């Protein structure tokens, strides 16, 4: 994991109904659809149903989504731990940092916090991310936090016009 000095302090917490507007805004931001598996807009009702029906138990849902707060209680982003495989003790990670907090070290702080959670609470052996070769900022962030590039997935992502290669990055905990 990356050296945490000078990184902002973050808190991972469960999603609350009060987070509906922020989640609605993020889920419907078309500019990030090509880096996620989302490709349709979500209604507020659909997101509220997700919040209400999620057990928040990674062993039941095979995923967990958490809000990320800074020391002032401001929501700086969302982190997803998905594709959880309990028999192999691994999961995929995805994070979104709100544009107004981007470039301030929050991404690295979140990756460190998730790694700590994955080790202490979930007892995972590894985390991985799949990142577009064009997403230089994310690639740099993951690599700064100890993730290693392990494979190239050819034409893995579709940006609406072209297929783009993606890199698999892994960290062993």
UniProtKB/TrEMBL annotation:
<dbReference type="InterPro" id="IPR000182">
    <property type="entry name" value="GNAT_dom"/>
</dbReference>
<dbReference type="InterPro" id="IPR016181">
    <property type="entry name" value="Acyl_CoA_acyltransferase"/>
</dbReference>
<dbReference type="Pfam" id="PF13302">
    <property type="entry name" value="Acetyltransf_3"/>
</dbReference>
<feature type="domain" description="N-acetyltransferase">
    <location>
        <begin position="10"/>
        <end position="170"/>
    </location>
</feature>
<protein>
    <submittedName>
        <fullName>GNAT family N-acetyltransferase</fullName>
    </submittedName>
</protein>
């Amino acid at each position: 994991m990356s050296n945490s000095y000078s990184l902002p302090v973050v808190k991972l917490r469960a999603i609350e109904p009060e987070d509906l507007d922020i989640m609605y805004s993020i889920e419907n931001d078309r500019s990030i659809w090509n880096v996620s598996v989302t490709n349709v807009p979500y209604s507020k009702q659909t997101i509220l149903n997700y919040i209400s029906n999620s057990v928040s138990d990674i062993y039941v849902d095979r995923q967990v989504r958490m809000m990320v707060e800074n020391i002032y209680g401001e929501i700086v982003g969302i982190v997803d731990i998905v594709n959880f495989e309990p028999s192999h003790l691994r999961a995929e990670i995805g994070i979104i940092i709100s544009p107004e907090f981007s470039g301030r070290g929050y991404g690295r702080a979140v990756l460190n916090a998730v790694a700590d959670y994955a080790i202490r609470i979930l007892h995972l052996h590894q985390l991985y991310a799949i990142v577009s070769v064009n997403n230089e900022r994310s690639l740099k962030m993951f690599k700064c936090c100890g993730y290693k590039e392990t494979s190239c997935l050819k034409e893995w992502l579709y940006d609406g016009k072209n297929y783009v290669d993606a890199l698999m990055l892994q960290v062993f905990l």
